[in-house]
Write a structure and sequence with these properties.
The chain has 14 helices and 22 strands. It is an alpha+beta fold. It folds into three domains: 214 residues, Rossmann fold (3-Layer(aba) Sandwich), CATH 3.40.50.620; 84 residues, Uridine Diphospho-n-acetylenolpyruvylglucosamine Reductase, domain 3; 116 residues, no CATH class. A six-stranded mixed beta sheet has the order 3-2-1-4-6-5, with helices on both faces. The longest helix is centred in the middle third of the chain and has 24 residues.
Length: 436
C-alpha cells in the first residue's frame, strides 16, 4: 500500500522516472521507509545524513546505521556534520529552529533535481495543530505542501501505522532518536499527548486534521488568486516595495492583508511575519503620512503620500564631498559633475546649475535645517516641506543628492534647482550633475 501511495504521489507531483532524488536519511522509521520505497521504484538516489552535533554516541550510531543501510541497497551515502548548539547561540534560535535550518542547508547543497523528505500524515497533523495553537491564519493551516520548490514529500498521505507495517513486511530495521520521547519539545508534546487525546474523541483525528489542512489550502489559493488581480498596485523601486494605498479602497480585509504580505515578499522573506505585523501596517493607513513601524528581519513599513513602502531599516549616514568636476562613487550611486556649453532636456537623473564660483559648494545628502528657493518661486521654504509638497516618498528622500552651500540648497538632483543658480537667471559656468 505504501509503495502504491508513494508512486501515486510522485505521479501527481510530475516527478519523472529519470529524476535524480536526494533523500534526507536520519535512520528513523520514516526516512528508512522512504529510501527503501524510492529505491524499489527504480529512482536514482543519493542519501544524505546530517549529524547535528547534539546527541554524541547516539548520533554516531545513527550515522553508521544509515551508512550500512545505503551500502546494502547500493545507494550513494553522504554524511554531513553541523554544530547546532553553536549556530543556535550565534543566531539566537531554539535548538529545533537551528537544527532545521542547518539540516536543510546541508540537504539542499547535495540536491540536483529533488530533495525528498519523510514527513508523513502524522507530521502534517502535528504541524497544523502547532500552527493553530500559535494563532495562524488560513495560509498556515494548509501546513506542508507535497511539493515546494525542490522539496518533495512523498509520504504525506501515509500514516505512521502504514510505515511501521511496510518496515515489518520488508524486514527493515531503524534507529530511534531518544529525544523523540522527551516532552520538553512542543512537537513531541503534540505527538505524545495531544493527538492520542484527540483520537479518543475521533479515532480518525489525524486524517480529519489533514483533510482540514487540504481544504484550507484550497481556500487560501482562491483568496491569493483574487489578491493577485491587484498585484500591479505594488511596484519595486530602489530596493523597496511601494503599495499604492488608493487601490485598496473597497477591498476585503483578506485581500488587503495578502497584498501587504505580497509587498513584503518583494523585498525579503515572509519568515517571522505574523498577523500582529500585518495589523500594525494596517494601522499606519489610518494615521498621518510619515509614520512607520519596524518589521522582523530588519525591515520597516512607512506610510508616505498615499503609498505604503516596505524596505530595509537603514540608519542614515551623512556624507559630503567637495563640488568639482569628475565622477564619484557613493555606495550604490555614481555622481558625475561636468562643465557643459548648454542644457539638454531633463531626464530625471540630472540637473544643470550655473556657478561663478564653486568655493564652499558641496555635494551631500539632506540635513535638518536645509532650505531651498525652487526655480520660479518667490521665496524660500524648508527642503523638508518642499519634498513633502512634491510628494517625494519618505524612503527616497535620504538618498537624494544635493548641491549645497551651507544650508542653502542649490539643486536636488532629479527634482529641481534653486532659482539663484538656474540656467538663464544667472551668469557663470554651466555644470551638469548626474546621478546613476
Amino acid at each position: 500500500m505504501v509503495r502504491a501511495k508513494v508512486a501515486e504521489a510522485l505521479k501527481k507531483m510530475n516527478i519523472e522516472p529519470n529524476a535524480r532524488i536526494t533523500v534526507g536519511l536520519s535512520g528513523g522509521a520514516d526516512s528508512v521507509c522512504l529510501v527503501h520505497c524510492l529505491h524499489s521504484l527504480g529512482y536514482s538516489l543519493r542519501a544524505v545524513h546530517v549529524n547535528h552535533g547534539i546527541r554524541g554516541e547516539e548520533a554516531a550510531r545513527d550515522a553508521e546505521f544509515s551508512r550500512e543501510l545505503c551500502a546494502r541497497l547500493g545507494v550513494e551515502f553522504i554524511l554531513e556534520e553541523r554544530d547546532v548548539p553553536a549556530y543556535a547561540a550565534k543566531k539566537h534560535l531554539t535548538s529545533e529552529q537551528a537544527a532545521r535550518e542547518l539540516r536543510y542547508e546541508a540537504l539542499l547543497s547535495h540536491t540536483v533535481d529533488h530533495l525528498a523528505v519523510a514527513h508523513n500524515m502524522g507530521d502534517q497533523a502535528e504541524t497544523v495543530l502547532l500552527r493553530l495553537i500559535r494563532g495562524t491564519g488560513i495560509d498556515g493551516l494548509r501546513a506542508m505542501s507535497a511539493k515546494s520548490g525542490k522539496i518533495i514529500r512523498p509520504l504525506l498521505e501515509v500514516t505512521r501505522q502504514e510505515i511501521e507495517q511496510y518496515l515489518a513486511e520488508n524486514g527493515l530495521d531503524h534507529v530511534t532518536d531518544s529525544t523523540n520521547g522527551c516532552d520538553v519539545y512542543s512537537r513531541n508534546l503534540v505527538r505524545l499527548q495531544m493527538i492520542p487525546t484527540l483520537e479518543r474523541i475521533n479515532p480518525a483525528a489525524v486524517a480529519s486534521i489533514c483533510r482540514a489542512a487540504l481544504l484550507a489550502g484550497e481556500d487560501a489559493d482562491f483568496i491569493s488568486s483574487c489578491a493577485r488581480e491587484y498585484a500591479d498596485a505594488i511596484t519595486v523601486r530602489d530596493g523597496a516595495a511601494e503599495l499604492d494605498v488608493s487601490r485598496l479602497d473597497g477591498l476585503h480585509i483578506s485581500i488587503v492583508s495578502r497584498l501587504l504580505r505580497m509587498a513584503v515578499a518583494r523585498v525579503d522573506s515572509l519568515v517571522d511575519i505574523e498577523r500582529t505585523h500585518i495589523n500594525a501596517c494596517l494601522e499606519l493607513l489610518n494615521g498621518q503620512s510619515g509614520r512607520s513601524v519596524s518589521l522582523p528581519r530588519g525591515m520597516r513599513a512607512t506610510y508616505s503620500g498615499n503609498t505604503l513602502v516596505f524596505g530595509r531599516d537603514r540608519q542614515k549616514r551623512d556624507w559630503e564631498i567637495p563640488f568639482k568636476e569628475g565622477s564619484f562613487c557613493l555606495g550604490e550611486l555614481t555622481v558625475s559633475v561636468g562643465a557643459v556649453e548648454e542644457m539638454s532636456p531633463r531626464d530625471g537623473r540630472s540637473e544643470y546649475i550655473v556657478l561663478q564660483d564653486t568655493r564652499g559648494v558641496v555635494l551631500r545628502n539632506r540635513r535638518d535645517g536645509d532650505r531651498i528657493r525652487p526655480i520660479g518661486a518667490s521665496g524660500g521654504k524648508s527642503l523638508k516641506k518642499y519634498l513633502i509638497d512634491k510628494k517625494i516618498p519618505l524612503h527616497l528622500r535620504d538618498g537624494l543628492v544635493l548641491a549645497a552651500r551651507g544650508e542653502d540648497i542649490l539643486a536636488v538632483v532629479g527634482v529641481t534647482v534653486g532659482d539663484s543658480v538656474a540656467v538663464g537667471k544667472s551668469k557663470g559656468k554651466i555644470y551638469k550633475i548626474t546621478v546613476s
